Every structure is written in C-alpha cells, then in structure tokens.
Amino acid sequence: MRVNSYKLQKAGDFWAMFFSHRMGRTGFLIFCFFIFLALFAPILRTVPPEISGSADRILTGPDGISWLGTDDLARDVWSQVIFGSRVSLIIGFVTAIITVFTGTLVGLVAGFKGGIVDEILMRIVDFFMMLPHLPLMIVLAAVMGASIWNIVIVISIVSWPSTARLVRSQVLSLKERPFVEAIRCLGANDITMMMSEILPNVFPVMFAQGVLMVTETIYAESVLSFLGLGDPTTISWGTMLHFCFESGAMARSPWWVFPPIVCIVSLIISFSFLGTAVTDILTPGYKEKMGY
Amino acid sequence: MSLLEVKNLCVDYEMRRGTARAVNNVNFTLEKGETLGLIGESGCGKTTAAMSILGFVTSPGRIAEGEVIFKGKNLRNFTDEQMRQLRGMSMSIVRQEAQNALNPVLTVGEQIGEVLREHGIRNKIDVEDRVDSLLEMVGISPERKKSYPFEFSGGMRQRVMIALAAIAEPELMILDEPITGLDVIVQRQLLNLLNDLKNKMNLTALLIAHDLSVIAEMCSRVAVMYGGFIVEKADVVDLYEKPLHPYSKALIESYPRIHGEKKKLVSIPGSPPHLLSPPESCLFAERCKKATEKCFRCIPEETIIDSRMVRCHLYSEEECNV
Amino acid sequence: MNIKFVARKILASFLTLLAITFVNFAIFRMVPGDPIRMMFKDPRVSIEDIEAMKVKYGLDKPMMGQYINYMKNLAKGELGISFWQKKPVGKVIAERIPRTLGLIGLSLFLAVVIGTILGAVAGWKGGSKTDSAIMGISMTLYSVPSFAFGILLMLAFAYHFAIFPLGGIETPASGFTGIRKIFDIARHMVLPSFSIVLWYIGQYILITRSSMKDVLSQPYIVTARAKGVRERRILTRHALRNAFLPLITITGVNIAFMTGGIIEAETVFSWPGLGRLFYDAVMKRDYPLLQGCFLVFAVAVVILNFAVDLLYTRIDPRVRINGEAVNEG
Amino acid sequence: MKKNLPILKFIAAALFIITFSTTAFAGGAQESGAAEKTRLNVAWTAGQSLDSLIIDENWQYLEMGCTLWQLCYDQLWIMGDAESGYAAQPMLATHWDVSEDKRTWTFYLRDDAVFHDGTPVTAYDVEFTFEYLPASDPAWDMVDFYYESMTVIDDYTIEITMVNPFGMPYPPMYWAPILPKHIWEPYKDNFKSYENDHMLGSGMYKIKEFKAGQYVWLEANEDYWGGAPGVDEIVFKIYGAEDTRNMAIQNGEADMVGYLGISPLTIEDFEDVEGIDVLISPDINIYWLNFNLHQKNGIQDLEVRKAIMHAVDVERIIEMALVGYGEPADSFVYKELEWYNDDITRYPYDAARAEAILDAAGYKDTDGDGVRNEKDGSGNMSYELLATADVSEEVKAATIIAEMLGDVGIDVQLKLVDTDTYYNYLYTPDEDYFDFSLSTEGPGPNGEWFWDFCRGWDNGGAGWNTAYYSSDEFDTAMDNMMASNTLEEKNMYRKEMQKIISEDIPYGIIFRKEIICPVNTAEFTGYTATMGGTSNWINPWSFLNIEAK
Amino acid sequence: MSDNELVLKVRNLKKYFPVKQKEGKRNKKAMLRAVDGLNFDVKRGEILGFVGESGCGKSTMSRTILRLISPTGGKVYHCGEDIAAMSDEEMRKRRRSMQMIFQDPFGSINPRRSVSETIRMVLKIHKICDSRAEEDSVIRNILEEVGLTPVESYWDKFPAMMSGGQLQRVSMARVLVLKPEFIIADEPVSMLDVSVRIGILDLLLSMREKHNLSFIYITHDLATARYVCDRIAIMYMGRIVETGPTEEILGNPQHPYTKALIAAVPEPDPTREINELPLKDWTAEVGGEDSGCRFYPRCPVGIDSCLLKTPILTETAEGHKTACLSFDKL
After folding, report:
1. B303 phi and psi, to 5 degrees?
2. Which parts of the sequence belong to the ABC transmembrane type-1 domain (chain A) (predicted)?
C-alpha cells in the first residue's frame, strides 16, 4: 500500500489548523482531560464512588483523604466526579450517534429522493422541531420513568430533527453540485451516489451536529436531573447535583455542588470549542485565509 | 501630473508555508482621460493590484512595498477616513457581476443615492434627481429605483453597479472584469454603455480583464500581468500587432476569433505558476517556447524598447549574476 | 404582504397544531400504572370509585372515542379538570400566562438587545481581542445551565447580600398597590430574568456573531466600502439588517428550545408562572394539567413561529414580494 | 473599537439602573410599608403547599391543607399537646357524654361560637358536616365517622350513635372541620363543586388573601370565642425548595418552618443565627421495611426476612441518613404510649447471624458471583427496594440498607420513584412492582386505624395492607380489640398484635426520625412542639398559642 | 444514411417545466418551454455545436438527451435505439457509450477523491477491470492520453490542488476511459483561463480523430464553436433558429438573432470598429409564447405575422436551414 502523501498533507493541514485554532486547542485539551478521567476512573479514584463512608465524615470539606470533600453519605465527591464523567460522556456520545445517524438517514433520503418522500419526512421533522423541547423531554421522562437510557431516548427523540433538516439542506445543495450529476451521468446508481458521493461530503455537518448533540445531551441530562427526573441510581454529574439540591445542604457544601457544575460547564465548553473550531476550519475560505 | 501612479507595488500574502507575492514590483501610471487595461489569467494578481489602489487588501494579505500616488498624494499615508472620503467620490469600482454585489434588502435607488449621501450631499431632491438621471444614463427606467436587486436580471444589476460607480463622477473608475459571466449580447451592450460613459464623463479608467477582446475595445494602453509581474506594457495596437513578450504573443495566438480566416490556434502548455515560494527565475520560463538557460536562472528586469516596457530576458542585455 | 404566503403558513401552523393535539393526547395515555389511582391518596379507595372517576374523566371509552371527546372539549376551550387543584385546567393556566409572558418578555428583550449588540460587535471586530473576549464569555454563558445561573445568582444576591428576594413574584401579603406593587414585582423579576438572560445572551451573541461574519464576507459589504460608506453605517444599515434575517429564522427554530429556560428559572425562583406550574404538574403527576401546560407551550411555539415568519416577510423584501424565502444557507 | 464603547457603557448603565431602582424603591417600600400589626411568617416548601381551597383529600394528606383548615374551622374536640399527654381537649364541644355500651355519644356545644360571617355555630351545622362531608370525599370516610344515627337534641346538643363501640381514650368525630350549613347546603351532594375561596368557618383565623403557589395570608378572628389569637396575622409563604426555605428563615423572611422541619444536615446553619432557636422533637412517622409477601421469592420466607432485619444496622442508618437525629423503633406503637409492648421479638444488628440464618435456610451462593441464590437455586437473591426519590433521607436510608444487605450477600436494586408512583406501586402489592419497600406513615397517638395495615386482604383488609399480609391470628386479635370496651382489654389485644407482627415481620419496623424546627424566638413565644414538630396534622397548637413578644 | 452512421437522432424533443409567472399581482401557473421541438442528427465522428445564451435551453437539452431528466415529449435514438424505452438498468449500461463533460471542472469532480480514485470509481461502477493492477494500468494509460504527465505527479492529487485546465483533463479522462461513442461537452472551456482553453479544445479534436468520437459541443462562445465544430445550431429560447456548416453560418448568417450574436462577439482587434447591435429592444420582457416567433419582441425586421405563425427550419443553402418568417418572405 503506497502512502498517499497528499492525503497525509491534507490531514496534516487539518490538524495544524486545528491546533493553531485557539478554541480547537483548548477544547481538545479539556476533552482529552475528561476522556482521561473517564478511562482511568478506576485507577484515579480514591474509594469506590458509591460506597458510603463513616458517619463522622458526612459533608466534610476537601482534605487529604477526600480531595474534593464528601457528600451527605460521606461518599467521595472526587470519585463520583470521575465516574460521573463516564456516564456523561457515554450518554453524550450514544445520543449523538443515535441522533446523527437517524437525522442523517432521514435528511439524506429526504434530500436525495425529493418529491413526496421529502415532503412527508420534512413535515414530520418540522413537527418535531415545533414541539417545545424541554417540556417534551420532561413529560417523556416523567412518563417513561427515570433511567439513563430513557434519558438517551428522550433526548434523541427531540434532537434528531435538527440534524435531519441540516443534512437535508446540505444534500439538496450537494445534489445540485456538478460532480453528483457527473457521477450519475457516468452510470452510478442511487445507492452509489448517496453513499459514496453525497454522504462523505456531509460528514463535516454530521460531525458538527454530533458535537452539538453531545453538549445538548450533557446539558439536558443535568437539567432533567436537577428537576428530579434523572436516574437517581446512576452516578452522573446530573444526579450528583440532584442529590445536592435535595439534601438541602447545598448552600453549606460548595465542594459538593461546584465540581459537577464545573465539569458540566467545562465539558460543554470544550465541545462547543471543538465544534466551533471544526466548523471554522471547514468553512470555505478559512484555509486560504489562514494561509494553507 | 498623472492622475494615478503606482510605484513598485508589492502585495504579499502571508501563508503558513511561506509568503506568496501576489503583486510584484508593479509600476504603471494612468493619465487623466485614459483607459488602461490590465490583462492576465486568474490568479495573476490583477485584482489584488486594483484593490490595493482602493486600499482594500485584507488579511492575510498586506502591501509590502511601493506607493500608490493619486493626484500627487501617496494613498498609503492616508487615514481610513481620508480613504473613505476618496472612495465613491474620487475613485470607484465596478466589480465582476457577483450575485451579491448589491445589498438584497435595500432598494436600488437607496443604494445608488447612498454614495452621495455618505459624502455630504444631503439634499434629498438633489440626490433623487441625480439617481434618476444616472439610472436613465445606464438604460434603466428611473421608476425602477424602488425595486430590489433580486427583481433585476444579471445584466441589469451590472448596470446598477455602473450607475452606482458613476454617480459621483469619480476621477478614477476601476472596472474589474465588468462583463465577465454575462451573456454575449448583454456584454456587448454593457461594453457600449461603458464606452459611452467614458466619453460622456471623460472617465479615467483602469480596466481589468482576462479577455483580450474587451481590452481591445475599450483601452488605449494595456499592461499584461503574469504571476504578479507586469510582463509587458504597451499601446493596445502595438501590442496586438507586435507583442514582444512570449506570453503576450501566446495569449494573442491562442485566442479564437470569429472574423477572418480560420487559423490553427496554438495553446500555451502547462498551467499558471503557483505563487507560493516561486523559483527565482522568469515565472513564464517553464511554459515559454523561447526560454533559454538564462530564463531559468534569474528574474528578468524591466526593459524599455521603443517606449514599451517588457520584462523578458530576450530583450535584456544584462547578464544574469546569479 | 403576500397573502398566499400567509395563508400557506396559517395552514401549516394549523396542521402542526392538530398533530400536537394528537401527540398531547397520546403521550398521556402511555403512562404506566393507573393515573386515576394516583389521584387517590387513600389506598382504601374502592374499585367503584375508580370506575366512577374513569367515567368522569372519560377514560372508560375506547381510544378513538377519547380522542374525539378530547378534541370536542378542546374546541370548546375545555382542557379538563386538574387532578390536583380540582379547578378547570384552562382557568389555572390562564392565571399563570401573563406572569410567564412578563418574565419571558423582559428576558427575551434584554437578551436580544444585549446579545445582538455584543454579537454584532464581536462579528464586526472579528479576530480581535474584543471578539475573543466576547466570544469566550458567550460560550461560557451558553454552557452554564440556566438553573445553575439561577442558583448562583440566588446564593449571591438573595442569600449572601440579600438585595433581592429569594423567589416568588411579589412580597407575600404586602398589601402593596399601584406603583409600589409594580416596583415590588420588578424587584422580584430581576434575578429570575437574569438567570434566563445570561443564558440567552450567550446564544444570541453566538448566532449574531456568526451571522454577522457571514454577512460581512458578502460582496455587497465590499461594495458598500467601495462606495465610501462610513463604517458605522455599513454596520447598522448594510450588515445588521442582513444579519438579522438568519437571526430571525434561527430564533423561530429556537423558540421551541427556549421554553426550557423558563421552566428552569421559574422552578429555581418559585416564580408562579407556567413553567413552575408545569414543573409542579410533573412532580404531582397531574396529567390533565400537564397536558394543558404542554399544549399551551406547544401552541405558543407554533404561534411565535408564525409571528416570526410574518416578521420575516416584513424585513426581507424577497419574501414580501415573491412570497418565497430565499435560502440563506 | 472606540466607537463601540458607548454601546457597552449604555448596556452597563441600563443594567445598573434596573438593578438599583428596583432594589431601592421596592426594598425601601417594603420596610416603611410594614404594618404595626404583628405578623408571623411561616415558610413552606412548594411540595406541601395547597393550590386551591376546595375541600378535597388535600385537606387530609397535604400538610398545609390540614394546617389551614384547623386554623379556619373549629372541630368538636382536638388532641392535646405533649404536656397534656395527648388527651382530648374540648373545642366546639365543651364536654361530652358516652353511654354504657360506648356507642352513643352526646356532644354539648358552646353557645358563643360564631362563624366568620356572624352566624352562630349550632348542632345543625355539626349534623350537616358529619352527614355530608364523609360522603363527599373518600378521604373523610373514616372509622371516626361510622355512625348509625345522629339526633339534634337542641341547638347546642347533638347525640351520635356509632356503629361500633367507640372510645378509649378518645371520643369519635375527631378531625373534621365543622362547616357552616347555610353556605354548604347547596353543594351538599358534591362539596368539590364549591370553590370555598374564604374558608368561612368559626376558627380563630380568617383567610385574608390566598394566592395559589405563592402565599396564604391569614388574619386574626377578633370575635373568636376563645379570644383573639396572639398574633394579628399569619402569612404562609411558599418557597420553591428546602434550601430557599432555610435561607428565608436565616435572613428573617420567615419565623418558622411549616412542617417536617429542616434536614439534620443543615442544623449547624441555624445554630449561630441570633434569635433563632432550634426545637427538636420525635417524629410522628415511623419507618419500616414493607415486605411484599405477594412476591413469589425469598421475601415470602420468614427466615429471609429475619436475616434481613438482622443485617440492617439501624444505628448506622440513623447516623448516616439522619446525622444522628433519630432513634431505633420496633413497633407501630410509640414507645411513650401506655400500650407499647416491651415484650416483642427484636432483631438486633448482627450480620454474622443474618448470614448464618440464610445459610441454614438454604440460601447459598451456589454460582460464586458474590450474591446468594434462591433456595431452589432459581437465580440470585436480587430484590427491588422501592423508595421515594423525593425525600433525601429516605433515599439515603435506602442506599445504606442496600449496601448492608449487599454485605450479607443479598443484592438489592434501588427502585427510586416519585411519590405518586411510589404510592401507586405500594398500594398494589398484588401487582408485584416491588419486593420490599422503605415505607413510613404516622399512626398518631390515636393509632386505631393503623391496624388496618395488617388485616388480611381476604378478611376485610386490603387498602393499607401494603405487605399483602394475612394472619388469622392477627385478624382475630384485631376483631377482639375492636370489640372490647375497656382500655385494659384493648391494650391487651394491642400488645398481642404487636407481638404477632414482630414475629411474622410483614413490616420490619426500623426507626423514627426527629423533627428539627428552627423558630424565631426573638419576636415570638409560645411555640408548641409535640411529636412531629411545631406544626403538623395533630398539632395546631403552635398557631393557637404563639404570641408576639 | 444508415442509422448506424447516425450516432444520435433527436426528433421533436420537448421539455417543459412548470413555473410561476407573474401576472399583475397574481401568480399564474405556466409552462416554461425550455426545450421546444428539437430535431437534429449527429453523425459518427461529427462535432455538432449548439450556440446560445444562458436560458436558451441548451443545458436542458443535453440532460434530456442523456435521460438525466425525462423529456416532456419527443424521441431520442442512440444508434437507432429509443433511449426512452430502455429500463433504468439498461440505460445505466448505455451510459458507457453516451457521456458528458461538464462546464465546471472544479465542481464536477468530487473534492474528496484523488485523481486516480476519481477514475477508478468509474471503472468500478461499470466493473470494467478484474484486478486492481489492471485498473492501475488503465488509469495510467488514460492519464497519459489526456496529457496529465508525468502520471505519478497527478496520481494522488486532490482537485483542490489542481488548476481548472488539469481538472478538465481529469474529467475528460474519466469519460474517455469508458470508451464512449458520443460525448456531450457542455461549455467545457468557458470557466478556464484563456491560455489553457485551446489545449482542451485540441484534446477534444484529437480524441475525435483517434476514436472517431461524436460530440455535441455546447457553448455561448461562437469563436470556440468555430474552432471545433463541423456544424453549428443556433438556439434561441428552446428552439433551433438556424443550423448549418460552421463556416457557412458565420460567413452567411440568415437569422436576425444569429446576426446579432455574431455582431456582439468582442474581437481582440483594436482596429475594428464597434457597431451598434442589430436589435430592436433587448430589454423587452420576453415570455415563452406558444405560437409565433419567440424572437419577435427583439427582432429588428419582425412583421405582424411573426406573432401568429411559428417559423420552421427551412433549407436555404446546402445543409443551411433557418427558421424565420421574414426570411420566408424574402
């Protein structure tokens, strides 16, 4: 297999641009930090996060034993935070994959097929976009019961349409691009055209949308948990907050309330930064402007 | 005194992999009432050169060297506000018809009149009168000034652009490929319109084109650009009859015509140079049939032959000292 | 205004509303367990009582019959009786709407004004330090959940400094009237509206900035500069107006999303509006009320979207004249 | 850059003005507007607040509901405070007689009581109330009101004959608002159709203003037969969450908490606050493990239940979940009551013994995954523990219980749901939504109704019997208890019933909380703490006794 | 002439699009007759030029011929076979011999594929080669043939790194690798720099020589049409107004529109006089009237009957046909 030097250069350019993009760099570093936390949580933790401690360590501030203090069952906040990052990242990614996959499929088919298929699919999409998101999530979460996977489903239900709409508009404009017509003219069938010509060109949008979905999911999980509709049996940042609010001791235990908030905010920021950086880089003209 | 004098203009684009010199040591003057054509292929730096006259060089580009002297004053020393005063009033530009050169949400009349209003002519009636007469001049019924750009066809929009550029009767008008991308008959009409205006207003114009024919019909003098350099500068007729630079010659020979005898045309092999880290040699050398060993060694200097300027080793005596 | 365009929009909105009523109806029939059972706190309630209740709430009929019934009642403006409050849902909601409108109106107004101005400045000064600063702030604001803002604001300004009240819409049992009452309400509005505003500002800055940057790269901006138009005028007349167009569209799309902020803020600050009502209804599993609130939210979104479309036609001549939105990418 | 500065300045200025003006004007207004009237501010959390004044089950089950009606209406008699030993205290009825068979009760009403509109309270109002109130709402349909006939003897005398013998230590007809007949007459078939905006009764307070979800403003009934109350106004303020409510007390917005008290975690926050005292009293509620005997698994096995009881370290639960503010409990009957049976079977914490019991009963970890298997080897001993997710202490207690049972090899899955779903599941044990649950109720000093928890479903039980427990022995004892006429006899059966439950463990009673109530003692005095705190459904005394200093 | 000699036979080809037309304040539904009754043949080895301005229907025509869009009416025969009658799969296979080169070299090649992959894709679609090695050699040969040498330096290049001329060669290679009989070249050089245009046109001509290919060369530029075409058809609003051998048309135009077109072409000759266009009113609004001559509103020699009678192509000289009533009259 020969090494394609142009491809390498292209990839190299991307990463160079990415790392010279201040937001991209910052976002990536924060993101890596959380990935690190999540991957090595069992090593990094001090005690298992779900095990309650002794009564004299209830709500103790940060000290040598518990780096970030303890909660109202004397559980270690630091361990909860790092294990919580697993949950947040997993539901973020799973939701992103589900929504982006569904949205892309719908958008691709609608945009490519056009006509009545497009019309029907887009009416459905419009309808879903019109539904008030958080109320719908709340209602569904209330109806379906509290569990992490229900949250994933709930967020997916309300989030896929925006991806579908975006992908569709991309597909519509791609469909008009001469190279699609050219490949059709060269004898390609619909599947080939969709999969090998249009889909790869939709990747940037899918990526940006996926990143957005991760942030929305993390956000939504925290809001639902805050409202008491999260899954109280799984340790996530949202449920940490939930228990903190519920305990009534929020005002006097900042070490308990701030870590999950800081984590939520910084993970969302990191994804927003990543998204912005990638969108910037993929914007036509950016490459030239930055001199690549 | 010339109306415009461009001296040693160099425009650099700072790229990650080096600096690209889009405009390289460009010199030309523009006398009052004269039309100078600037011809070259895409990416040869002609638009950059024109835009730097107006002070529009945006990052990552910058004017590295040189002077732009307009009516005896170096524009490079002007403040932003001074440049603004100049634009629209003393110098204006008609750009290649792009879909969005006119603001989609403002009426055509508003956009034309704005030139005057922004330069201190506040009397409403005066402005409206002037807009009406200009529209009429470019062949648009004044009633249509209440229309929005999207209600016009491409040719009509370009007429609006011309009206907009001409309304303040500027001393210098830069025409940046004003008819490219339009239909043949519309092109012809616009060409005729521009020629009319030129005569009526005694315009001084810098016409940028990639097309010999347009230059031939409008300009008295022409400068040929290649790879950021002006490679030849001459009267239009002289150039056509006896091009000195091999590039000019090839350009003329490769241009198909509909009148006269059908000739076998000669194409120029290869493709235009990449301006990022170009070789220290004549940039045309690789495509030049007459290139000698010297051409691959050093950059030719400007040479004056019969009051024509050419930048080619064929005509220079001096030795290459590299 | 293009009548056909408006008519088409009205039809589309109507169809959406119809679909929403169906979803609204269906979701609450998916509830596991027995909603009627939940109405009775007393375990000794007899089967007869439950059956009687089912008849009362029309839950004994088959699904289709229930839906028709529901639509009939809806047409009459009846949303059922709240399980919890025992009052007609319509009445309960009607009382709350003005409060929420007031809160969201003020917040949106502040967010849009401040957000667009800052966003425009950032977009205008693209790449500068001002831009980076505004951008950094807005992304941070955008990333902080509304409720977290609310809690922080409350801890700071209502607890530690005690400048503002801890919650509610007015001082309880104050007996204030006239101007004092207005000031009292305004004072209660500050913290909740800021918790919403801060989040929206972030969003609006981001949207305006990118829209602005997009517009500024358009050839007509170069045209305007070449005409010698003053920079400030380019900003206000040429750039902002065009930048508003996608902003309006996105606002339309985002309205559905915005109902979230109001729920969070009203919950944190116990602002007795629709959001709080919705939250209470969820917590108490008061299904008729929940259904009613959800319907109101959905209808509000549809109406606001419709209003946004109309606004769009006012601002964009292309839509006004042709009746077709020009795709702004 | 420079040109845009004015915009930023403008924004900053606008924000400043908004903030400043609203603060200055309204803040100032509030202080100067304070009336010379004494006002007690009571802080409630939204979950306990009343959203309408319509008479419904919320008057019984919602703490704010029962507080409000107890203040606005009079009852025939009320339960005394802790000092009086929770003895019956006269209210509308100045005294009462009972026949030999303890079935016919005659109440003699005071003649000086008037409703807020000036109409006198007569025996006809009492008759009306008891005739139609229980019929109107299943929640009022209680043993206390199972009468055979009612006779109005004269305006101020009423004779009521009960279906069952009734008495010891309390008369019947407890805990119902005496409604004005002249107002409710038109709505007698459905009380819920009357909006009842003013709660017009004969109580010592009147509703001045009611704003759903915001506040209730009560003013003193100056014409109250017992004399005007000690404060002129009471305002029940509703706060969104416990934190906010606590802050309100700390910064002086409120003088006492309405009900349930504060979380023990936050008690330190109040200790240093000047003018605030913290009153601690035992809770009225008792916590137990509610075993679902309908489930076809190890839970049905008494040995398993015994092992579970041995495996649960109640002291640790109290330390962890309640920060020490609680005490172990082992019976439905409070320790301080006369008929508490000291001689019941107890299951002290002993994990080793628990394991031994399980081993002996054949629940062994046969597949080596760390979790014991069912006796017949049909899978793990993995049980769902149902608890409400809405109460922090209960979540914590359930978490710790799960941990402890995990230590003896029983895998416990927490099933934390909202309160309504919780009760929906709990009240239908036959649907097997749970294996066992952490439950709580408050029997009150008059705990007669509480035995319904154990009466078999086939024997007139159901309803409260959320353990799906059935024991002929118990049902017989209960019947005997109901039929007995003397306190001694009753107590004998009551003790027997406690014994039976402690042996069968359908309910594994574990602990009782303490209620912590911060109160403003700088301005007010007279707070009356009984079991359950300064204010709850058996205790309107604080509001009756409080006086401004 | 046998059908086999006629690579393409087009008979009464029509393509209408529904459009909204403004009539006063109201929108009226109407048909845009983009292609309205075309008849022509293309012989083997012939280059037929279609010249017209934007909107004259020439692109619609080419897409209709290749069945990228279905015609409203009329027939297209490829080597005597009606392509409308073919199934989709047959048509897909038939595309091997009917190909198209697009105007925009930057847009018509997927930016995510390198040069070799672009061509390999085509080979894969038609399963032309059995092995990757065979593919490689085919690609190498075709790249050499279109003048992209040395092949190695182009092999892995992406479109973004190439000039328009090079890309247009790639798209020609992509088409030629299928060994088609007939190619529609839709303004193949209009987006290229002047200096490389002739190179592409020469390549086109040499391919014709080498493989006896037939071309339809679509352009708005009479000068390049003259350079490559054997015959020319002038199109105006969906109809052919004049057709004939290239030199005949340019030297002896009959139709007023053709005359105007020729007059409008700017010449690179500074000595030439600039003359006014022989047109009545170019800015006049023109609709697609069903009957009558569509050029009438702009025609300097139009008469009243032009409004009523649709002119048909009439032979005026050997192979030279014109559709004009005023010409009839003459």
Report:
1. -125, 140
2. 85-275
Tell me the three-class secondary structure of E14-60, residue by residue.
EEEEEEEEEECCEEEEEEEEEEEEEEEEEECCCEEEEECCCCCCHHH
Of D243, D246, D265, the CB nearest to A72: D265
Query: ipTM for the complex?
Result: 0.80
> Is there a domain that residue E245 lies in?
no
Test A215 with C143 for CB contact under 8 angstroms: yes
Instruction: Please name the CATH architecture into which domain A20-47+68-290 falls.
Output: Orthogonal Bundle (1.10)
Q: Given CA atoms E92, E97, E103, E106 in this order, what sign does their dihedral have? A: positive
The predicted structure's pLDDT at residue D129 = 92
Q: Return the pLDDT at E20.
A: 65
Helix (H) or strand (E) holding A163: helix A148-175
Q: Do C272 and D213 touch (CB under 8 A)?
A: yes
Same domain for D142 and D159, yes or no, is: yes
Cα separation, A128 vs A160, whole angstroms: 9
How far apart, in whole angstroms, are the C-alpha atoms of residue B156 and residue E194?
Answer: 26
E160 and E195 within one domain: yes
- Contact: A182, E109; criterion CB under 8 Å: yes
Q: Tell whether B125 is within 8 A of chain C (Cβ).
A: no
Closest CA–CA distance from residue A178 to any residue of chain E (Å) = 4
Instruction: Judge whether E213 lies within some domain.
Output: yes
Task: Return the CA Rg of chain A.
Answer: 22
Q: How confident is the model at residue D124 (pLDDT cuts 50, 70, 90)?
A: very high
Instruction: For residue D327, tell me if it sits in a domain.
Output: yes
Asked if residue D354 is part of any domain, the answer here is: yes
- Among C240, C248, C246, C238, smallest CA distance to C311 is for C248
Find the residue in D nearest to C48 (Cα).
D138
* Chain A CA closest to residue D262: A248
d(CA A279, CA B4): 43
Could B267 and E265 be called an inter-chain contact, meaning their C-beta atoms sit closer than 8 Å?
A: no
Question: Nearest CA to C118 among C141, C102, C101?
Answer: C141
Instruction: Flag whether B touches E (3+ CB pairs, 8 A cutoff).
Output: yes
Dihedral angle sign, alpha carbons of residues E206, E211, E214, E217: negative
D175 plus D224 within the same structural domain: no
Q: Read off the pLDDT of each residue in E326-330 and give the average, rounded to a whole number.
A: 58
pTM beyond cutoff 0.90: no
Cβ-in-10-Å burial (0-12, 13-18, 19+) of D161 comes to middle
Number of domains composing chain D: 3
Measured between beta carbons, the chain A residues lying within 8 angstroms of C263 are 134-135, 138, 227
> What is the C-alpha separation between A98 and A122, in angstroms, rounded?
19
Q: pLDDT (tens digit, 9 = 90+) per residue, D364-391?
A: 888 888 899 988 877 889 999 999 988 8
User: Pick from A130, A140, A223: which is nearest to C256 by CB?
Assistant: A130
End-to-end CA, chain C: 24
Instruction: Find, in chain B, the residue whose alpha carbon is nearest to that of E246.
Output: B258
Residue ranges making up the domain that contains D544? 7-72+203-275+521-548
Burial code of D351-373, b = ≥16 C-beta within 10 A, e = fewer? Answer: bebbbebbeebbbbeeeeeebbb
Q: In the structure, do chain C and chain D come into contact, i.e. share 3 or more CB pairs under 8 Å?
A: yes
Question: What is the domain extent for residue E324?
Answer: 250-267+275-330
Interface D:A, ≥3 CB–CB pairs < 8 Å: yes
CATH architecture of C101-283: Orthogonal Bundle (1.10)
Where are chain B's structural domains? 4-83+171-268, 91-167
CATH number of B4-83+171-268: 3.40.50.300
Q: Which of chain A's residues have a Cβ under 8 Å away from the Cβ of E70?
A: none
CA–CA min distance C283, chain A (Å):
8
Domain boundaries in chain C? 1-84+284-329, 101-283
> Which residues touch E38 (CB under 8 Å, ≥6 apart)?
E10, E12, E13, E14, E61, E74, E239, E240
